[in-house]
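R.M. (postdoc): so does anyone remember the format we settled on? I'll just put the structure tokens first.
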């Protein structure tokens, strides 16, 4: 697990309930629970600050970091997608976006990562498509300083929605990965027996792995998916295990914050 992911997942999954701020020592200690070295965590924090996701702040005499408003919006949106019980309703129309990157390789890669995270699949030639508009699209692309245009409607000429989905997204590979993820989940009974420390590390790793699906799965509507799609079963099992682990994991976070509170800047 990369240091940046450990920090972002901590803020998005736990600190959002606790004021979006934590002492640096608590962030370092909790990242260490998933085998991230302190130096790597501090480097990740510095980079997140430089990129506008975190800001340094002293509170209660402790030096720490708070999620910026931009980060809160992004991580709150990601949290809602991670824990959504089912895909949002679909009106049968597609949201098509065309982005101009000026031919820059680095900019193209940034745009691709951003759009994939927002649930868009590549059409080719600067075109991207999603079953629904994402409210984060405009601020995300404006932050990358690229030109873009979007339309939400029916495709012309009319095309079969299932064929479009199969063309744009690797549904076979994604379905296989969902099935594999589901098979590797711990049992609910086993998750419920874990002590706070192991519950935190187990839940953090599971949430991180599930969050990675956000870059590949735009929560496609059942109308366009293959029969017996394993994604919904994987989602249901993940939510059940994550909910079981949540109380003990939360106690571990509270303990780390309490221990950090005994220190002073």
């Amino acid at each position: 697990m990369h240091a940046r992911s450990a920090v972002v997942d901590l803020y998005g999954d736990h600190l959002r309930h606790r004021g979006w701020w934590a002492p640096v020592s608590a962030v370092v200690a909790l990242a260490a629970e998933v085998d991230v070295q302190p130096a790597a965590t501090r480097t990740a924090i510095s980079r997140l600050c430089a990129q506008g996701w975190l800001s340094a702040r002293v509170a209660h005499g402790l030096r720490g970091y708070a999620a910026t408003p931009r980060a809160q919006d992004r991580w709150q949106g990601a949290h809602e997608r991670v824990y959504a019980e089912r895909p949002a309703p679909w009106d049968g129309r597609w949201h098509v976006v065309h982005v101009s990157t000026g031919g820059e390789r680095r900019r193209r890669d940034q745009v691709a990562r951003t759009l994939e995270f927002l649930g868009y699949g590549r059409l080719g030639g600067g075109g991207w498509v999603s079953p629904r508009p994402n409210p984060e699209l405009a601020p995300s692309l404006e932050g990358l300083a690229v030109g873009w245009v979007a339309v939400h409607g029916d495709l012309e000429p009319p095309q079969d929605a299932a064929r479009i989905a199969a063309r744009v997204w690797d549904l076979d590979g994604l379905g296989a990965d969902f099935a594999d993820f589901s098979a590797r989940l711990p049992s609910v009974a086993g998750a419920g027996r874990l002590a706070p420390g192991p519950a935190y590390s187990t839940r953090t790793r599971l949430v991180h792995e599930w969050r990675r699906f956000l870059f590949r799965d735009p929560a496609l509507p059942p109308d366009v998916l293959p029969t017996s799609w394993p994604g919904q079963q994987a989602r249901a099992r993940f939510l059940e295990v994550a909910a079981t682990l949540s109380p003990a994991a939360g106690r571990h976070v509270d303990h780390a914050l309490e221990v950090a509170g005994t220190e002073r800047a």
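R.M.: ...and that's the designed sequence above, right after the tokens. Also worth knowing: The chain has a mean pLDDT of 91. The two ends are 29 Å apart (CA to CA).
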